[in-house]
Predict the structure.
Amino acid sequence: MKMKELLTSRLGRKIFVSHLIIIGVGVIVLMLTVRLQAPYALNQHIREMEHLIGENEFLRQNLMNSFQSALTEVILIAASGALLAALIVSSFVAWRIVSPIRSMIRTVVQIADGDYRQRAHFVWDDELGELAKNFNRMAEELHSTETRRIELIGNVAHELRTPLASIRSLTEGMIDGVLPADFSTYSAVQTELTRLQRLVGDLENLSQAESGQIKLNLQEFNLNDLVEQVALRLKPQFSEKQIDLETELSEPVLRVQADWERMQQVIINLLGNALQYTPSKGKVRIYTESKDEMIVCGVEDNGIGLSDSDIGRIFERFYRVDKSRSRAGGGSGIGLTIAHHIIKAHGGSLRVESPGLQRGSRFYFTLPPNS
């Protein structure tokens, strides 16, 4: 950074002036100290030299004045050197502090203009370097958020387009007389409308979840009762697909303080996900246990499994492991995202494990026990 740019920088000017003030105060204190202390010290030495200079008051005063003048001259020369050194050091220190900040300001302006790929450059491993690292981390999150926002708009548009196109073709068919206006046609329209309603409800839940506005109606209950109820409710769907649903409860009572409806939504999502991605004649196991002072509930299957990249993105909005699966048969793609936020709102965590593709997977969540 040039000296002109440094001095025109408000922060650089403040740092520069502050250093000069410190030097100036130091010089003033030094001069006052010399003025006050030098005569006393000189008198002490003169008393010791009286046997050499005798009682000559003129000689004594002349010696004192000469000593003070010489001392002042030396101090002024030293202060001038200190001031020059201060100018050089202050310029360097101000540049070292202001330069990365100005770089970050330029990057902030570029990001504010919509270029989320810009990053702040840092050289020194100090507080400013730490600031630049955290700034870049924030920029990465902003870039990721913007990317997800764009993907969300595209995914929502796609999700809405399919049922709307179906409803349009059905109604046009009835208008043109190609399709009969009977129960089956109206039922098909109602099915698509139900899909739209479910998608809107899921998006509303997702919006509440991601903004941290999930309302919980906390109550004490036995988690095993909820698991058994949900498993019994979904049993016919598993039987229809010829998938064995096994329930394994390690203890008769696992009391939690949670929202019954929300936890039911989580378990339905996990079991529905296992049903969706487990082939016919497969096996799904839902279990509960108490482990490491936490209550655990998990769903394990021998379905298509997950790759490492899938595990890293499985809780993202609209993410699907099986890209070939139709959206009509694959759900809205936000059930796991909502479940993740619901468990987080309860003070727990939702995780996933898989040994690899075609080797099944295990989703499980932990909740604090009701003490």
About this structure: The first strand starts at residue 218 and ends at 222. The beta strands are 218-222, 244-249, 255-259, 283-291, 294-301, 349-353, 361-367. The domain at 218-367 is CATH 3.30.565.10 (Heat Shock Protein 90).
